[in-house]
Description:
Layout (H helix, E strand, L loop, with lengths): L2 H28 L8 H12 L5 H9 L7 H23 L5 H10 L6 H14 L4 H14 L1 H21 L2 H16 L5 H13 L3 H21 L1 H17 L4 H15 L47 H16 L9 H25 L14 H15 L4 H10 L7 H13 L6 H13 L1 H16 L6 H16 L20 H18 L1 H8 L17 H13 L7 H9 L1 H10 L22 H9 L2 H8 L2 H10 L4
Helix pairs in contact: 2-3, 4-5, 4-6, 5-7, 6-8, 7-8, 7-9, 8-9, 9-10, 9-11, 10-11, 10-12, 11-12, 11-13, 12-13, 16-17, 16-18, 17-19, 18-20, 18-21, 19-20, 19-21, 21-22, 22-23, 27-28
Amino acid sequence: MSSSDECAETLNSAQRLERNSDGEDKSNRSRPLENKPKAPARIAQAGMASGRYMPPALKRQLIGDSAHVRNHDEVLQRDSWDQLKKRINGPVNKANVSNIKDIIVSLFNANLVRGRGLLCRSLMRAQSQSTSFTSVYAALVAVINTKLPIVGELLLTRLVLQFRRAFKRDDKNQCIASVMFLAHLTNQRVAHEVLAFQIVSLLLENPTDDSVEVAVAFIREVGAFLGDIAPRVLDHVFDAFRSILHEADIDKRTQYMVEVLFQYRRDGFKDNAVIAEGLDLVEEDEQIVHEVAMDDEDLDAQDELNVFRFDPEFKANELKYEEIRRGILGEDESESGTEGDSESGDSSSDESEEESEEEAEKEGKAVVKQEIHDLTETELINLRRTIYLAIMSSISFEEATHKLLKIEIRPNEEKELCNMVIECCSQERTYKNLYGLIGERLCKLNRSWAGGFAESFESCYENIHRYETNHLRNIAHFFAHLLASEALNWSVLKCVVLTEEATTSSSRIFLKIVLQDMAENLGLKTLNDRLNDPKIADAVVGMFPSSDAKSIRFAINYYTSIGMGAITEDMREWLKTAPSRAQNSDSDSDSYSSSGSSSGSSTGSSSYTSSSYSSSYDSQSDSSLRSSRSSHSQKKSWGETLKIT
């Protein structure tokens, strides 16, 4: 073989090797990689795990390429969690006074049970960044709290814990943001007022410039509400501020802030209303107050609710919240599919109603609208609660009367105010003159209140046997004050009939306390003159019976036993001038039978009177009346006929 042939063969073999190597590379490049996900899917999966933003195309590719992911349901739940986070953060950041109602509806459309941690975190973050919208966020929470109380309780717990941490770290800005949110939640009746006083007590316990500044900011927001609920406690708070102003070592800037706070209080916190206009969205009977205390050690922030967690019963829980949402928003299952039918039905029903009204007008018949009567007495209960709080939060009777007159009372409900004043008086351990002065002022301001108290007197006397002894005494002292001060007309005494058959032990105790109080306030002589006044003779005819001797003797014995013997003169004269009737009644009663009665002048002395009793009457001396009551024979004769408690 020549050298030229060898060179050609070497060149051909080199070309074959080059072609083989190129073919293998191409085959390797064209061969798909097995058991390895595509690059976009890996990127999307890593982004989902890290919580970073991902383009929608990559996210759809991840869901579509779920064969490479262990759990397809977890991916769907994580995507739902991200959507829930957006549906909560967006409306919260857009909330203001004008659109708060629409924001509430959009928030209820999201699953707030699953995302309550996200909602609380979003509210706290938004409020700390814009404290001027704190009242809006508090109103938002107040509405949600009426339907989902767990959200309100969780937010209060986190705010209290956040305030604790900020207070320990001396983080003034964070403390101010926390207490402002808690103040507005207190105004909205989500947090109890005890929490507010605990916060103030903690801040002023060891006053510093920062703690006093935080306390001033807090009281400015919640002072108007605390002044209505517990004015006495608020007075103590301002006493503490006053002592800090005079004694504590604080700089002039802080002193000026405290002085401005006092000026705010003198102006009635007019620049910081309890609830701003347009944010009073919750009725009083729907409010749910959470009693979260500052010193509770079992508070749990539930931080695990802020992050995604796989829920094995995700679909079932979503269906449950869907039912809750429909109940809150008042939607039915058929509403979504039959909106057009309902609109047409509503329009047709409206047209038919209009036609029927026109026909009725043509016929001359009046269209009677159906009235709704509240048989649950919710409004009446709210009125009683308002009256009770007005009385209990007042220092003097002038303040209490002023608050009671400001209450809007509908016609025919005046008696409820009178009954509540009497009820509050009866519940006290001992009688307080405050209630008598309140009743006196009301009766003298408007005679309609006097009519209400007159009806209450008759009702209380008829049902006096149902009251406990302490309640009975307080009510008797109350009405004795009204009668002695001429605030109540004495004609109310016409319901009192003093006979053995018509009285009970409770009614005799009641009448005893009333008469003794009136004698103490007016004097026995003045009381006797008033009872003998011809103007009220018809009203007190039952208190001084004149029909038969038995009833007269019973009344005389009763009045004498309670120290009112001086008002029995007319009844004693009646017995003297009517001996025949007295003797007839004596024959009916064994205890008062007389064995040694004689005619003539001796007939004028009735058998019920002993020699000592006659001398006491002739001298008309109270001391001799008391000595005659102490005689053994007289006690024995009275004890057989009377059982006076």
